[in-house]
Amino acid sequence: MEKLNEILEYNKHFVENKEYEKFQTTKFPNKKAVILTCMDTRLLELLPKAMNLSNGDVKLIKNAGALIAHPFGSIMRSILVAVYELQADEVFVIGHYDCGMSSLKAETMMEKMKARGVRQETLDTLDYSGIEINSWLHGFDNVTESVKHSVETIKKHPLMPADVNVHGLVIDPETGRLDLVVEGY
């Protein structure tokens, strides 16, 4: 069975059995916090358990590497919405060891793109248009430094209120241990 059909079939029973009721909460985070973390599959359940979080406790933003690639991109906008509209007063940036973004090389990814039909001319056009595709596709060399950079981007953002605490941590995806990188108090 295709993934979509499996999901829809499961969802039908989920709704019919009212399994959603145990997850009901408001749009406001109970712990008044927003977390930016990586989309790594190992963190899906581990991160909330390691932080003693339940459904409704925090706003959770995920992307590849817990990176803020642009100070006026969608990640930063989501953090600002959480602060101004959803009552979050603390931000946690949580990277993780053994992150795929630490080994991401633009050249390798572009070769995979070409193997799946993206033409070299398209990549050249993007480069010519001012999109520095090599830096855009580059990951990071050190997770601790990457977390520090994202924390600084948030703290120094011209629209971020000074009274919002911004913390940086790195989680071990094997054990759930959190290592403090930046304490925002």
Low-confidence stretches: none
Termini distance? 50 Å
- Overall form: globular
CATH architecture of the largest domain: 3-Layer(aba) Sandwich
What's the number of structural domains?
2
Fraction of residues in helices? 25-40%
Strand order of the largest sheet: 2-1-3-4-5
Tell me the CATH topology of the largest domain: Beta-carbonic Anhydrase, Chain A
Rg of Cα set: 19 Å
Report the sheet-strand fraction. 15-25%
Task: State the total count of DSSP E strands.
Answer: 5
Mean pLDDT: 95
CATH superfamily annotation of the largest domain:
Carbonic anhydrase
What structural class do the secondary elements suggest?
A: alpha/beta
Largest sheet, if any?
A: 5 strands, mixed
Q: State the CATH class of the largest domain.
A: Alpha Beta
H/E element order: HEHEHEHHHHEE
Number of helices: 7
How does this model look, in words?
By secondary structure, the chain is α/β, with parallel strands linked by helices. It folds into two domains: 137 residues, 3-Layer(aba) Sandwich (Beta-carbonic Anhydrase, Chain A); 34 residues, no CATH class. Helices cover 38% and strands 17% of the residues. It has seven helices and five strands; from the N terminus they run αβαβαβααααββ. It has a five-stranded mixed sheet, with helices on both faces. The N and C termini lie far apart (50 Å).
